Design the sequence.
């Protein structure tokens, strides 16, 4: 999921440089949503609510 965040951030940066404001905003919004999801999952694992089976 971290890879998708980095890809979306790169797309947003490139689109912003090329002047595609809406595409840049859409990619940035997607990256923000994924960052929130990753942080929530990380906190759930950290507090032991979700166990990771190894």
Sequence:
């Amino acid at each position: 999921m971290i890879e998708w965040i980095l890809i979306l951030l790169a797309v947003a940066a490139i689109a912003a440089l090329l002047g595609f404001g809406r595409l840049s905003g859409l990619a940035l919004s997607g990256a923000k949503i994924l960052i929130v999801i990753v942080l929530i999952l990380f906190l759930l694992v950290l507090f032991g609510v979700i166990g990771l089976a190894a």
Notes: The mean pLDDT is 91. Residues 2-46 form one domain. Residues 41 and 47 are 10 Å apart (CA to CA). DSSP finds two helices and no strands in the chain.
